[in-house]
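Exam revision sheet. Question 4 asks you to relate a sequence to its structure. Input first:
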Amino acid sequence: MIVNEFKLLAGEFEAADAKEILTSLLDDKIAFHAQKQISYEERYGKREEHADVRIAELKESKKEILELLALAEKENRKLVLSSSIKLS
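Answer key, structure tokens:
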């Protein structure tokens, strides 16, 4: 099996910049699953449980991340962000 890995995020960021990057990423993921949910409901007349679970998980992650970022901003700290995508 071939595995390709790509860096999505790599570097040190001011807390405000990290907040902007992560909020945008999480909001896009939430919107993606919400749109998929709407499409599923229109086609099948019911909600897809996986999408509801994933949206809830992402919203909880966003809440926790925003709390950490608020503390980092208050303390004027920089943050290291690192994330990759693996395709196989």
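Marking note for examiners. The beta strands are 4-14, 78-87.
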